[in-house]
Amino acid sequence: MTVYSGPVFEMAARQFNVIADHLGIPLDERDRILMPKRSITVSCPIHRDDGTVAVFEGYRVQHLLTMGPTKGGTRFAPSVDIGEVAALATWMSWKCALVGLPYGGAKGGVNVDLSKLSRRELEALSRRYMQELIPFVGPHTDVMAPDMGTNEQVMAWFMDTYSMYQGRTVTEIVTGKPVFSGGTLGRREATGRGVAYLAGRVIKELNIAPGDATAVIQGFGNVGSHAALELRQLGVKIIAVSNSTSALYDPAGLDIPALVRHVAAQGSLATFSRELAFDPAELLTLPCTVLVPAARERAIDATMAAKLRCRVLAEAANGPTTPEADLVLDKRQDEIFVIPDVLCNSGGVIVSYFEWVQDLQQLFWEEGEVMRREYQILDRAFDQMLSRARADNVSHRTAAMAIGVEKVRATKNVRGLFP
Ligand code: NAD
């Protein structure tokens, strides 16, 4: 038992042990690589609109300080606990190492049901959370970003709160900010764009014309909606999407730009069309070319893995597939091409890195430059993953994570015990 014990951290630990076995990492070296370096738990009191005081529990886990500052998103959701945050932080470490960013992984979160907060209460909570973490973060220590339940506005409140305490504007303390206040062009789209770019590349390698391909997307927030828009740009037909309460299905293809506008205006997917309403529980098993889980971790367990009817599984969410599901996928004769999360959604942290670099230099790039560099890094990591998978005869996930874990391990070994 550790403070992180729980289903999500146990999943991250099981995945890590598969890689450690593959790499032959001795048992006494494993905890040093897997266990988070630091975790901080904070109480965030705020005044509610009705005059009462409410206290929310927040966390920040900095997985490893070996590679440079830590980097990772902040999740505001009712599921958040320290184990989930720690698991997400470890995945960030393997991801950053895989794509060659000078960061260790981190993650943060607040256990909160956002549907019960007004905008003023959300601002108070965002500012209070950042304020509590000021002693532990910094542009060269730990750089935050958005994740589920947080957005550009929340990042702007984080940045402003930190800056007020420093007495000057410190844009480089967070990434995912609005473009006009130190953000980068292309960050909002980056994760979904990267997912679509890699899925497009795989479709091509499978000799499927994009016009003949269909996609199903679970989760229609930042990542899911941008993945949908970008896949549509490539010519892929999006036949189904869902959010936490509803799903829409149209075999003729959904009008994604209209859906994005509708959700932005109404905050609801369900009200877009009654005729297209579909059972969200059936979504993942729809026949399609590309399945994009872009919501929660552990959406695909062993039972679900046996029922998938896609050619490509593009893991936009973090940890959507359990280790038991991986075993099922590995054995399936029809070979689903898995683009594992650590690679598939890495466009987000790649462009966050670009934002940090631009803020530090106060020199800002055109969007085309951001995209060119994002795709270049994705292509390189994809190629490395494929050749490693072939050379070691292992799954794409094992190959991708092995590259990340190996880099972290090598750096720890040359540096010593301190970081
Ligand atoms: P978001 O809050 O913008 O959107 C999340 C979406 O998922 C919402 O539409 C929500 O209704 C939906 N959802 C939640 N539970 C669901 C369920 N059980 N079934 C179907 N839909 C459900 O969050 P996001 O930033 O788009 O993040 C989505 C996923 O992508 C998360 O796993 C996150 O960790 C990962 N991710 C995000 C980024 C980023 O840049 N935002 C980067 C890398 C990975």
Radius of gyration: 20 Å
CATH class of the largest domain: Alpha Beta
CATH names the topology of the largest domain as Rossmann fold
The sequence of SSEs as H and E is HHEEEHEHEHHEHEEHEEHEHEHHHH
- CATH architecture of the largest domain, please? 3-Layer(aba) Sandwich
Distance between the termini: 23 Å
> What is the H level of CATH, i.e. the homologous superfamily of the largest domain?
Leucine Dehydrogenase, chain A, domain 1
Chemical compounds bound to the protein: nicotinamide-adenine-dinucleotide
Summarize the biggest pleated sheet.
Answer: 7 strands, mixed
Tell me roughly what share of residues is in helical segments: 40-55%
The structural class is: alpha/beta
Mean model confidence by pLDDT:
97
Shape: globular
Q: What fraction strand?
A: 15-25%
Number of domains: 2
Count of individual beta strands: 12
Number of helices: 14
